[in-house]
Design a protein that fits this description.
Elements: H1 9-23, H2 29-41, H3 43-60, H4 69-83, H5 89-107
The chain binds zinc ion.
C-alpha cells in the first residue's frame, strides 16, 4: 500500500485526473493551489506532469496528422490491458489522454 507524503492515494487519483488540465493551464487558481503542493511531494505526478508538458510542447510544433488504424488498434489493445491492472492507473489515464489526442488529430 502506497502512502503519499501529502495525502491519501485517493487524493493522488483525483489530482492525476486534473493533471492534463493543469498542463494546459485550464485549472482555476484554487485548483492550481491544490495541485502545486501535491506535485512537489509526489514523484509520480511530477513525472506525469513532465511527460505531458513535453508531449504538449512537441505536439504544438507538429503538423496535424491522422494516426494509422494499426496504431489506434495497438493503443486500444494497450488500454484494454491497462484496465486489467487497476494499480497502474496513471498509465491508464495517460493512455486515455493519448487516445483523446489522436481523436482530436483525426478530426482536424
Ligand atoms: Zn500524485
Amino acid at each position: 500500500m502506497t502512502q503519499l507524503i501529502d495525502g491519501t492515494e485517493e487524493r493522488h487519483q483525483a489530482l492525476t485526473e486534473q493533471l492534463t488540465a493543469y498542463v494546459d493551464e485550464e485549472l482555476s487558481a484554487e485548483e492550481r493551489t491544490q495541485m502545486q503542493p501535491h506535485l512537489l511531494g509526489c514523484t509520480r505526478c511530477r513525472r506525469e506532469f513532465a511527460l505531458q508538458r513535453a508531449l504538449r510542447a512537441r505536439l504544438a510544433g507538429q503538423p496535424t496528422t491522422r494516426a494509422s488504424a494499426a496504431l489506434r488498434e495497438r493503443i486500444a489493445t494497450a488500454l484494454d490491458t491497462a484496465t486489467e491492472r487497476p494499480s497502474d492507473s496513471v498509465s491508464q489515464v495517460w493512455a486515455t489522454n493519448i487516445v483523446r489526442g489522436l481523436g482530436a488529430c483525426s478530426n482536424g
